[in-house]
Design goal:
Elements lengths: L3 E5 L2 E7 L6 E5 L2 E4 L1 E2 L4 E7 L6 E6 L21 E2 L23 E4 L1 H4 L5 H6 L1 H7 L3 E4 L3 E2 L12 E5 L5 H14 L3 E6 L11 H4 L3 E5 L4 E3 L6 H19 L3 E4 L13 H16 L4 E4 L21 E3 L1 H12 L12 H10 L7 E2 L4 E2 L12 E4 L3 H5 L7 H4 L3 H8 L6 E5 L19 H15 L9 H6 L9 H16 L11 E6 L2 E8 L2 E8 L5 E4 L9 E5 L5 E2 L8 E4 L4 E6 L1
Parallel strand pairs: 9-10, 9-22, 10-13, 13-16, 16-17, 17-18, 18-21, 21-22
Antiparallel strand pairs: 1-2, 2-6, 3-4, 3-7, 5-6, 7-8, 11-12, 14-15, 19-20, 23-24, 24-25, 25-30, 26-29, 27-28, 27-30
Helix pairs in contact: 6-7, 8-9, 8-12
């Protein structure tokens, strides 16, 4: 069942789930229309003559007009009236589009507001050539559901189905997806369904959405209480509408560990099944990606063994091990990482926190998951969380500006699905800071003070508009040779089956004297990747190839690119912060 303003022949049907009011009036086109109760908690009326572009709002028990919880458009923000949108009016050109095979995917995460000078969806569309040049095949948008003001990360949204007006709204988002598909790019959207933002949140006047408990970001949503059946149905309907009405190729579910659910079938499992069902119905795959801090394979295990059925999940252990090894940082959660041996463990087993005692967590965390296929894990050297949650938002190009940056990029050869963060491929050094534009002064002050408590006194005020401008990326600052290095690595991992996401047991990683030797296997070939994680040169003894002599395929020195045809000797000298890729046959 769909909710919201649903355009039909001759008018619009308004369908609302609301358990709390005794009466619901619709204000539209200078009229008031009383919605009919068509079920214990469901209201509906068909209004002739209403169509795309008309503004409307609901009065609950004669109160103040409120926007629609299932609004498709909020032209004037979270507090104002909703707008009727007819998704069938858009002319699509993507009938022949086929998403890339998941095992060939390289993701590219971006924030619409800071990706281009315009800060809009059409600015992203104009930059598709840059994304393709990086070697990426799938764009992952940070949340675009309507949030307060014009600047923000999007994780405090309150209208789940309305694309942010400051980004260009629903039609511009459709045009972006269409442009991506015409160019062969798929598009995934970050959805926040574990909480609602505080400003503009009128949902409690409609129904009991909140569970009474909190998360780090806002009130938790009731997924297993007495009235949770409708809450779950509403959230799933909104998620499916994003995919159906905007032709999205998948969703990334924010922080699935924050879902409080003791139901026999977990909400994420129910949601994942529904989204996959939309994909089956339209004849295209729909990917479901989970962000999880559970340290468990549960989100990506199959439902028949009790899992939630997601296609892949973010793997922070890989990032932490790589970042600590490259930068030398040991504060915060990096205290449990750093040695090359732990990066080898992450490469070989997929995770580091597998039941080991972790100092940062003051106890054991995680469970073994080495049996998972590498395609179930998404890894990154940078992403919005790991950059933006630093007090000053420093990128890796600032923290590790030399050859170590190219070595970090060489880990695109890891046996998982890689993710790049906007501008990473050209060495962008503009910070990615945490920024907001809240209208409520009390809430704005609370957020600013909370940020300083969490990140330290040097953390800048998120409300300062300068932070948003400083976070904007600029390809003119880029290094063309670095972009070629990223593209070469992406092309190589697609050309060699042994460099794609690996099956369990098909990756061997050994750390010796700061060097990392990683053997990647496939039925008819093998690839050897060597990394020197120290500033001094090392001589590394090569393991014997099982399929002939090793050939030198790539060398990170000076981002030099291919060196095909040279045969490697039994011992290879690696320069400080060097990386090479060898192949056999």
């Amino acid at each position: 069942m769909k909710f919201g303003a649903l355009v039909e022949q001759g008018g619009t049907r308004f369908r609302l789930w609301a358990s709390r009011p005794r009466t619901v009036e619709l204000e539209v086109d200078a009229r008031r229309v009383r919605l009919e109760r068509v079920g214990p908690e469901l209201w509906e009326s068909f209004v002739p003559g209403i169509g795309a572009g008309d503004r409307y709002a609901y009065r609950l028990d004669g109160g103040i007009p409120r926007p629609d919880p299932a609004s498709r458009s909020q032209p004037e923000g979270v507090h104002a009236a909703s707008e009727v949108v007819d998704p069938t009016l858009f002319h699509w050109h993507d009938q022949g589009f086929r998403a890339p095979a998941w095992r060939e995917v390289v993701l590219y995460e971006l924030h619409v507001g800071t990706f281009s000078h315009s800060g809009k969806f059409h600015g992203v569309a104009k930059g598709l050539d840059r994304i393709l040049a990086s070697g990426a095949k799938v764009i992952e948008l940070m949340p675009v559901a309507t949030f307060p003001g014009a600047r923000g990360w999007g994780y405090d949204g309150v209208q789940l189905l309305a694309p942010q007006a400051a980004y260009g709204g629903a039609e511009e988002l459709r045009a972006l997806v269409d442009a991506c598909h015409v160019r062969g790019l798929a598009l995934v959207l970050d959805l926040v369904l574990n909480h609602f933002g505080p400003e503009g949140n009128y949902l409690g006047e409609f129904a009991e959405y909140a569970s009474g408990t909190g998360t780090s970001w806002g009130q938790a949503i009731d997924l297993d209480g007495p009235g949770s059946r409708w809450v779950r149905h509403f959230l799933i309907a909104c998620a499916c509408a994003w995919v159906d009405e905007f032709h999205l190729d998948g969703v990334r579910l924010d922080a699935v560990h924050a879902f409080r659910d003791r139901s026999p079938v977990h909400f994420v499992a129910e949601l994942s099944a529904a989204l996959h069902g939309v994909g089956v119905a339209r004849g295209r795959p729909v990917w479901v990606i989970a962000e999880s801090d559970l340290g468990s394979p549960l989100p990506v295990e199959e439902p028949h063994v009790g899992g939630w059925g997601c296609d892949a999940m973010w793997c922070d252990d890989f990032h932490h091990a790589l970042h600590a090894a490259v930068t030398g940082e040991r504060h915060g959660y990096y205290v449990d990482f750093g040695p090359a041996e732990l990066l080898a463990r992450a490469l070989e087993r997929g995770a580091v926190q597998t039941g080991r005692r972790m100092r940062f967590r003051s106890g054991q965390h995680g469970s073994p998951s080495a049996f998972l296929d590498g395609a179930k894990r998404i890894v990154a050297a940078q992403n919005h969380d790991q950059v933006g949650n630093r007090a000053l938002g420093e990128r890796l190009a600032t923290l590790a500006p030399g050859s170590e940056y190219a070595v970090a990029a060489a880990l695109l050869t890891a046996p998982f699905v890689p993710l790049l963060f906007q501008g990473e491929e050209w060495g962008e050094r503009a910070p990615f800071l945490y920024f907001t534009s809240l209208d409520d002064p009390e809430l704005a002050r609370a957020v600013s003070e909370g940020r300083r408590r969490e990140r330290g006194p040097l953390s800048p005020d998120p409300q300062n508009p300068v932070l948003f401008e400083r976070s904007r990326i600029d390809p003119e600052r880029g290094q063309a040779e670095l972009t070629r290095w990223y593209r070469t690595l992406c092309d190589l991992r697609r050309a060699r089956p042994s460099l794609g996401p690996g099956a369990p047991g098909w990756t061997e990683a050994v750390a010796e004297r700061g060097a990392l030797v990683v053997r990647r296997l496939a039925p008819f070939e093998e690839t050897l990747v060597l990394y020197n994680l120290t500033p001094r040169g090392v001589a590394t003894e090569l393991p014997r190839s099982r399929r002939g002599r090793w050939r030198l395929l790539l060398d990170a020195g000076g981002f030099g690119g291919p060196r095909s045809g040279r045969t490697a000797e039994e011992t290879l000298a690696l320069s400080g912060w060097g990386a090479v890729v060898l192949g056999s046959p």
